[in-house]
Amino acid sequence: MAQVNSGASVDVAIIGAGPAGLTAGYLLSKQNVSVLVAEKDPQYVGGISRTVVHEGYRFDIGGHRFFSKSSEVVDLWNELLPDDFIVRPRMSRIYYGGKFYSYPLRAFEALFNLGIFKSAMCMLSYARWRVFPHKDVKTFEQWVVNQFGGELFQIFFKTYTEKVWGMRCDEISADWAAQRIKGLNLMTAVIDGLKRSIPLLNGKKNDGMQTKTLLESFRYPRKGPGMLWEAARDKIIEQGGRVEMGADVTQLSFNEATQRWRVVITDTNGAQRVISAAHVISSAPMKELAAKTFPLPASFNSALNLRYRDFLTVALMIKSEDLFPDNWIYVHDPKVKVGRIQNFRSWSPEMVPDPSMACVGLEYFCFEGDNVWASKDADLVELAKREMAQLGLCNPDDVVGGVVVRQEKAYPVYDETYQQNVDAVREELEQKYPTLHLIGRNGMHKYNNQDHAMMTAMLTVKNILAQDRRYNVWGVNEDAEYHESGSEGEAEALKSERLVPRRVA
Question: Containing domain of residue 259, as a range?
Answer without folding.
Answer: 4-51+68-83+225-306+417-493
